[in-house]
Amino acid sequence: LLPSALFASPLPLPLKLYNVLTRRKEVFKPLRKDWVGFYTCGPTVYNFAHLGNLRTYVFEDLLRRTLEYAGYRVRQVMNITDVEDKIIRDAKKAGKDIFAFVRPYEAAFFADLQKLNIKKAWKYPKATENIPEMIKLIRQLLKKGLAYRADDSIYYDISKFKPYGRLSGFRKNRTTSGSQTANSYHRIDADEYSKKDVQDFVLWKGKKAGEPFWNADLEKGRLAPTGGDKTRSGILPGRPGWHIECSAMSMKYLGPSFDIHAGGVDLIFPHHENEIAQSEGATGKPFVKFFVEGEHLLVNGEKMAKSLGNIFTLRDLETRGFKPLAFRYLVLTSHYRSKLNFSWKSLAAAQNSLERLYNFIRDLEREHDLERGQKRLLTKTVLTNAEKQFRQALFNDLDTPQAVALIWNIVRDYHQNPASFSPKEVLNLLYKFDRVLGLNLKKIKPAKIPTIIKKLTNQREKLRKKGKWKEADALRAKIKKLGYNIEDTTEGPKITPLS
Ligand SMILES: [Zn+2]
Q1: What is the pLDDT of residue 261?
Q2: How many Å lie between the centroid of ligand 1 and the Cα of residue 208?
Q3: Enclosing H/E stretch for 260
Q4: What confidence tens digit (pLDDT) does each residue in 321-363 have?
Q5: Would you say residue 372 has pLDDT above 60?
Q6: How far is the CA of 150 from the centre of ligand 1 (A)?
Q7: Separation of 40 CA from ligand 1 center, angstroms?
Q8: Which residues of 457-471 are buried (b: 16+ CB within 10 A; e: fewer)?
Q9: Do 288 and 30 touch, CB atoms closer than 8 A?
Q10: How many angstroms does the Cα of residue 499 sit away from the middle of ligand 1?
């Protein structure tokens, strides 16, 4: 388990999350005493993740960190889809087998997560390593009459699962548009002509020439042993559909019922809807308590599309001289259920703010360094209050824009009346906030002030206190020659490197 119990005991303030299943904010209560089960749909590794994907992963990281801030231990599972139509298509084009093809994208995905300071999940199961679990699930669905075989594939019969549509509001045979997901209702795979109903979805795709496949033993619910009789009835060579991957891998690690499933709004239908149908259909138990879904990212007000040439990756940002964490900051400034409009201008503003925050941290470090030991009177009440407000913001369905605004309130208050704050206590509070925000404040390298400079500065202070202005000025000139500027503030001397 992850060492998240380091945080304070669960706070009395309730954590509220918007649950897409019930379409309202609800108080979060975990199903189990000891841990929270949290499943997040991972990448299909056929390409680099784009900013829209990354926004979702950052939002999920914030949700996970907020749960930890509230005192819960979180078991986060994120799948890696490493067999899928697009992977097979693009691997073929590249003349590689799928395993060799996905490897660099998988590595790039983990590199992106690290650059965005996204905490590691508890498990990252891969689809190709969990095929037996998927076959087992498909067998259960066949036995219950919820799935059927047509030609060499297996489909889910959505007419047999009464609650179908509960999550997305989808109604069977609905043909009118007017819903945000209407355009995806009738997207039919050309190969799936054998389905009973166009709205049924595939669980197992029959083997096709030149494609990777596994021999599913659907009678026993497992992989057929290698070398066995592959022509026996009940053995169906093929590969899993995308939806069944998530049902199988989430329940494998988190059990048939778990607390939170997160993703992007584009996954509500059909992906998450189908996951519910598969899991609840097979187990007869409620699958997930909370579905929490993040909104889209727009680029200059438009949806990302290849044809518009506005699909950017983290590499594109870095090439243009941006820090990945500037993107994280930008994500924080917008609520996860609002569309985030990305532009180079908004990213530059985010980077600017982040730099200002880093400089503030450096100032505090430096002032803390001088150990002037003045009595700070206001700190306690102001900071306690700030922490309360910070919690209130986050526990109100992850109001990160408000949480970020609170940080700037602290910066402003400090600058208005530095004498009332202890730099150390302000720093500690910001570090605490950063356990949720993840801006790496603790890793800010302070502008290193050499000991000799600090020594000279202290000597100069002593001289000034004795009224020896001439000697003090001489020391200041000496410090300047060594590359540092001394600024006398009401707070005492402030040392900054001359750049
Ligand atoms: Zn999924």
Answers
A1: 98
A2: 24
A3: strand 258-264
A4: 999 999 999 999 999 999 999 999 999 999 999 999 999 998 8
A5: no
A6: 24
A7: 7
A8: beebbebbeeeeeee
A9: no
A10: 50
